[in-house]
Amino acid sequence: MPKPHELVAERTRRLVEEHPPGETPVRDFLAARFDAGLAWVRFPEGLGGLGLPHGLQPVSDAIVEAAGGPDPFALNPMGYGMAGPTLVAHGSPELRRRLLRPLYVCDDIWCQLFSEPGAGSDLAGLATRATRGADGAWTVDGRKVWTSKAHEARWALLLARTDPDVPKHAGLTYFVLDMRDPGVEVRPLRQMTGDADFNEVRLDGARIPDDHRLGPAGAGWRVAMTTLANERSAIGGGSTVRGAGPIAPALELWRDRPDLRTPVRRDRLVSLFARADALRLTGIRYAAAPSDYPNSPEGTLGKLVDAELNQDVLEFCVEMLGAEATAFPSYEPGGDPAADAARRADVRWRFLRSRANTIEGGTAEVLRNVLGERALGLPGDVRVDKDRPWRDVPRG
Amino acid sequence: MSDDIDGGPFVLDGERRALRALVRDHAAREWDEAALRAAIGPGARLDRDRWRRLGSELGVLGPDVPATWGGGGGGLPDTVLAAEELGAALAPVPYAGTVLAAWTLLASGDEEALAEHLPALCAGTSVYAVACTDARGAWMPPRPSVRAEGGAVTGTAAHVVGAPDADHLIVLAATGDGPSLFVADVGAPGLAVTPITSLDLTRPQATVVFDGTPARPVGTPGRAVCALSAAADRAVVAVAAEALGASARLLADTVRYAGTRMQFGRAIGSHQAVKHRCADVLTAVEQTRSVVYHAAWTADFGGDDPALTASLARTAAAATLTAAADAAVQIHGGMGFTWEHTAHLYFKRAHFDAVLWGGLASHRERIAALVLDVLEPAPA
């Protein structure tokens, strides 16, 4: 019997040998990887996994990355990072069988209908209502916001209020929503960068069959915790390669623009590099071994550090560019994908985009609360809405 | 051992976990707060019994030293685990200086000197310190202020850490062949060790004046810098591990206090201003742990540049301990500023560490040289 990590490495090497990423269509490569159980090695066999420890995923990822294989997180972030793990943890066998493979091969893009205009970091305060009809199916009404990929998504993870008469966490239910339902309307939302990556989603009598519910009615918060934990570790995972990930733009600028180098900037870049390498090694460490803390802070911690580092790196780049940074590539995204990719690769665009990093997926302030309370066990904040029925809690 | 390598730096096997528990128990038993206070009082000296137990019972004083010279094997990863636990307790013992001495001797390759000195070093029966500063305390000066001639050394080395308790000094001295290593015995004629009040009371230091002191050459003449640098690259990871352990302990103490200290009708740790500061220290500790373990592992098993990883570990750990100590003093309020509380001892350790053995600037400079200065612009 080969050791598990050898098994993963050997299977992955065989995969990239039989399906060379350079010559294989992305979809075919992903399908082969799913069928080989290397999509998420911790998932059960037949569902894209091998039933092995999560810590072995980087073994496979590193081989695929080195061979130039596609990154499923970049292609379908909410699908790969959040929906997949949530479906495996809480979905019925039928849902998992039907939805996981098309998710992984990117036939189905996913989005996440969590945040609302009145409930961002206080996610459990959300107001979108789902009510069950006589036939058992659910009808959903409400308004979601900050929804990445909603305009491309086939499926959505939806958290909705099903009982307003109990405290906020107790009255939520978790669903998988078909974005093609006629009750779903997607409206793009323009951001600081000029782009419309996010959307507003109006739900007006959208219908969901009961077998698309994940977990019991009223227990949606527990299911959402699975999604959020996976969201944070997916966002904060970083790169396993030194110099890649958040630090890359600063190192590239330093390399390509010797005319902008100064001793002060050199020292600042050393600090940023050291932080980036610590983040990178922490990602590897957390993947390899559980942390020493009883309530694993892994994903939260990585997400927080990644977001703040990314902002600091891009601020450094902008400062280094000086007057050149005061021109912006364009606030009007064009229809040409190549031109738009170049625009989004520009450090000035990335500088503006990075402001969202400490807001999306949990604000930096909320993440510090999570670390303080769950990882360190410090007493909770004062919560005035804790025991009150949701309908009596002031909102706005 | 092969399971270790499979697991990489971040998976501790049973033996390593056992070693860590052993040192943790030793530190908790031998270096509780009362013992720590007694050990840093005026005129206090190294507790030789406790030190010997680290050598004979725990076997952590001679990492990498072959069994023929009294070593128990174990490399930098084992050293790091021991250092972490001793650092957490702020054990007032010359652990980092001792592993530096052991590695300097080993790097000299002088088998006669190894046979003479290593068994006592490993057993903890003799204490060694490394005197490789100049008269102003500069670390590994290109022109040493100690000179060797005819089997004797003359000159001054200042800020020699561990010298007040040392039995033997490994001395860096200028010779006709270039900087070379010698061993001088404390108590030899013409050797004066004058202790100075150390900022970090747990790391005693002294000014050492040599005046025709008999000293035995060690290793190849002129190769001292090479041996010392190799040893220091490993020893600074041990210093980083001590700081990591100290940071984690401070965080735990501070969190416990913040969770029970009531002000304005609430535990102070329920206020975000305090809670977020603790979260930031947690983040720093976790990041530093990754860097330190990685440095220790790759130094022994390869896979990365040991110079770069040592400097990254050293700078990360020093910054984290400073932040953890700042937070501890601040969050403990007025109590944190008193002599009675231990926070000041950790605070002083943090700032002592920042200049220990060449200081952080040299490591930041080396990171810049290894990472940034080698980046060449792509040809146009």
UniProtKB/TrEMBL annotation, chain A:
Name of this chain's protein: Alkylation response protein AidB-like acyl-CoA dehydrogenase
Keywords tagged on the record: FAD, Flavoprotein, Oxidoreductase
Family of this protein: Belongs to the acyl-CoA dehydrogenase family.
Acyl-CoA dehydrogenase/oxidase C-terminal domain ranges (all copies): 218-375
Cofactors required: FAD
The keyword Ion transport belongs to this UniProt entry's keyword annotation: no
UniProt keyword Secreted present: no
The organism's place on the tree of life at top rank: Bacteria
One Pfam family here: Acyl-CoA_dh_M
SUPFAM superfamilies registered for this protein in UniProt: Acyl-CoA dehydrogenase C-terminal domain-like, Acyl-CoA dehydrogenase NM domain-like
PANTHER family attached to this UniProt entry: ACYL-COA DEHYDROGENASE (PTHR43292), ACYL-COA DEHYDROGENASE FADE34 (PTHR43292:SF4)
Acyl-CoA oxidase/dehydrogenase middle domain segment(s): 111-203
UniProtKB/TrEMBL annotation, chain B:
Gene3D superfamilies: Acyl-CoA dehydrogenase/oxidase, N-terminal domain, Butyryl-CoA Dehydrogenase, subunit A, domain 2, Butyryl-CoA Dehydrogenase, subunit A, domain 3
Cofactor(s) demanded: FAD
Protein's recorded name: Alkylation response protein AidB-like acyl-CoA dehydrogenase
Annotated family: Belongs to the acyl-CoA dehydrogenase family.
Keyword hit for Cytoplasm: no
Entry keywords, A to Z: FAD, Flavoprotein, Oxidoreductase
SUPFAM superfamilies in UniProt: Acyl-CoA dehydrogenase C-terminal domain-like, Acyl-CoA dehydrogenase NM domain-like
Residue span, Acyl-CoA dehydrogenase/oxidase C-terminal domain: 237-369
Presence of keyword Oxidoreductase: yes
Record domain Acyl-CoA dehydrogenase/oxidase N-terminal: where: 15-124
Domain of life: Bacteria
